[in-house]
Amino acid sequence: MNLSTVEIWTVIAGLAIGTFLIRFSFLGIVGNRPLPAWLLRLLRYTPVAVLPGLVAPLVLWPAATGGVPDAARLLAALATLGIGLAVRNTLFAIIGGAATLYTMLWLLG
Amino acid sequence: MPRSNPKSLVWLGARDGAPFMLVIVPFALLFGVVATEAGLNIAEVMGMSVLVIAGAAQFAALQQMVGDAPVLMVLATALAVNLRMAMYSASLTPYLGAAPLWKRAFASYLMVDQSYMLSIAKYETEPAMTLSERLRYYFGTMMLIGPMWYVASFVGAVVGKAIPPEFALDFAVPITFLAMIAPMLRTLAHVAAAATSVVVALVLAGLPYGAGLLVAAALAMAVGAGVEVAMQRART
């Protein structure tokens, strides 16, 4: 990471203030007015719109292997997704994904 | 529910929140470890965990920082992850909106997935709750989760440096995110949004400063909302 200490604290402060304002938006400022349906609809998809795009390049081109696709990491990602879809439980998916990663790294390593 | 003893609602909230420690503690530990690996010192790790308390956004910011994205791009990405909380804020307002400003501000600071989901479920099943009862329950849900988030972040930051590269911690972030995303893929609209996000982010991965991710996120939100509308039309 090449960010300076000042830049890091700018990120922390900006994230803290921005996140608080998002949380405070209706409860503190807008109050008890109904949100337009189209806005609610967009907000509903924010996590599934941001996180998959963030994770996809990390899975396909991991920095730890110099950006070369890695079988152990790909399989671990698939296992995590599969377990998460099957049991709908984040913790189990993390455990299953980590177990797959270590098993595959050991087998292929 | 014993109305004579409102304190019990704090404990009820704490008890309902307790199982989530199984998620919160490993997640915060991981954040501390990964953030330390990325080069943040303990003060910076704790500054983030205490001031922000939003795991997914903290990881997203970290990821963008490791990719040397400019400050504004880091903030845009991480705040986009948190936009869902505007929805939480709006949906809590009918229940907590009459509280004094400082209590609403404190409730906002503590607004996370767990406190929101537990409280809204409680308020809907028990419409007779008074405002003070609702607040007690809400703060109760965070009584264990909040402090544990700080403590586990700290422990992770302290032990992080001692973990050797053989543990492939680089992949902790992808696994954690995938594990969070998978249970969210409840409807075709969610799946379509996630797929759009992946495809566009990969195609635009060459754009500088993580700009591709923001485009991908905006398109994915539109696709999710569009598919939802289409599905509703198809049903009626």
Structure, explained:
The complex is a heterodimer of chains A (109) and B (236). The mean pLDDT of chain A is 90. In chain A, helix 4 packs antiparallel against helix 5 (90-108). Chain A has a domain at 50-108. By secondary structure, chain A is mainly alpha-helical. Chain A contains five helices and no strands. Chain A is extended, with a radius of gyration of 19 Å. Chain B has 236 residues and is mainly α. Chain B is built from twelve helices and no strands. Chain B has helices at residues 7-17, 21-38, 42-52, 55-66, 71-82, 84-96, 101-109, 113-125, 131-160, 172-181, 188-203, 211-235. In chain B, helix 1 packs across helix 9 (131-160), helix 6 packs parallel to helix 8 (113-125) and helix 11 (188-203) packs antiparallel against helix 12 (211-235). Chain B is globular, with a radius of gyration of 20 Å. At the A-B interface, helix 1, helix 2, helix 3, helix 4 and helix 5 of A face helix 2, helix 3, helix 4, helix 5 and helix 6 of B.
Question: Can you give keywords for this protein?
Answer:
heterodimer, A: about 110 residues, mainly alpha, 5 helices, about 0% strand, extended, B: about 240 residues, 2 domains, 12 helices
Question: What topology emerges from the helices and strands here?
Answer:
The complex is a heterodimer of chains A (109) and B (236).
Chain A: H1 5-30, H2 37-44, H3 46-60, H4 71-87, H5 90-108
Helix pairs in contact in A: 4-5
Chain B: H1 7-17, H2 21-38, H3 42-52, H4 55-66, H5 71-82, H6 84-96, H7 101-109, H8 113-125, H9 131-160, H10 172-181, H11 188-203, H12 211-235
